[in-house]
Write a structure and sequence with these properties.
By secondary structure, the chain is α/β, with parallel strands linked by helices. Helices cover about 50% and strands about 15% of the residues. Strand 4 and strand 5 form a beta hairpin. The termini are far apart.
């Protein structure tokens, strides 16, 4: 069935341009985003339809070579197309505009080995501590890369001997960073917790979007977002929080103060966030972090990675 003509269709269904409709989200991994189109099954092929009113136009979608397909606003999909896409091993998800936030994702039958490694590490305190240090090293590395943001030095994880010590050092760093930025931008600030309770505050919104990007990386590799390393002992989403914390200083913390200083709308804040994720290859960075954390079978190999990051 051809979509009915409406204002959205008149604006968006104009011509076929695969680069316009099929947007790559990663340089190294086959993750793609679609918007304003119709996805159907045609024989054994998946077709992306656009409409020029009197002439139906389409291009083929090679779902067998796609790891994850994210569907945004203005899209419709038939049940047969969804069945074929997921049967060929492609994760299918529904998102907001620009691929975040992530609303719903398909369930795939995959090898349990990835999650078994994840669960083993989460239950072994020594492995958990080593992986916590990896997460710290990955965050420290990215903060040092963006020196122009002039954030306080991130703690060196090598001196800590427990997860609790890591978390306490991170909390102290966060307070120093908030105070420093509040002073530089001349913005009143009392503490991080009170700021996060305001849903219209850019930092709350950007943190939420960061968790969604972390979820994409986690689901793409077949891990459980609820079983974390530093987070997740009392509530769900632990691994998503662990992973998002790596990029939040760059895409959430500093941009939130810039947004408040310049009076950006949440729409502008989201647009800048999406641009930063793609421009800096941060989704790739999170996927690589997961591969380092969970792709090793022995604790010694995890430990070796800490010294080689």
């Amino acid at each position: 069935m051809i979509p009915r003509e409406n204002k959205i269709i008149k604006k968006s269904y104009t011509q076929i341009d695969e680069a316009k409709y099929l947007i790559p989200l990663s340089r190294r991994h086959p993750l793609f985003y679609l918007e304003y189109c119709k996805i159907v099954r045609k024989e054994n092929d998946i077709r992306i339809l656009t409409q020029k009113y009197e002439e139906e136009m389409s291009f083929s979608l090679p779902v067998g070579n796609i790891g994850a397909l994210m569907i945004g606003p203005g899209c419709s999909i038939t049940t047969e197309a969804a069945r074929i896409i997921t049967a060929r091993g492609c994760l299918l998800s529904f998102t907001g505009g620009g691929f975040v936030p992530l609303f719903l994702i398909s369930s795939q039958h995959r090898s349990p080995l990835s999650r078994l490694r994840q669960y083993r590490i989460s239950l072994d305190e020594n492995c958990r501590l080593l992986c916590g240090k990896i997460l710290f090293e990955r965050r420290k590395k990215i903060i040092e890369k963006f020196k122009e943001f002039d954030l306080p030095d991130f703690p060196d994880p090598s001196i800590y001997t427990s997860i609790e010590q890591l978390n306490l050092s991170e909390a102290a760093w966060a307070k120093r960073s908030y105070r420093k930025l509040a002073k530089e931008f001349n913005i009143p600030w009392t503490n991080k917790e009170s700021e996060d309770k305001n849903k219209k505050n850019p930092i709350t919104f950007l943190n939420f979007l960061s968790y969604s990007v972390a979820d994409i990386a986690i689901y793409h590799l077949g891990y459980d977002p609820n079983i974390g390393i530093l987070h997740g002992r009392t509530k769900g989403g632990g691994l998503a929080y662990d992973l998002a914390d790596i990029i939040k200083p760059i895409v959430a913390l500093v941009p939130s103060f810039v947004a408040r200083d310049k009076g950006y709308s949440l729409s502008k804040v989201k647009s800048n966030f999406i641009s930063d994720i793609i421009r800096y290859d941060l989704l790739d960075y999170l996927i690589k972090t997961l591969e380092i954390l969970f792709n090793k079978k022995e604790e010694k190999e995890v430990n070796d990675h800490v010294s080689n990051i």
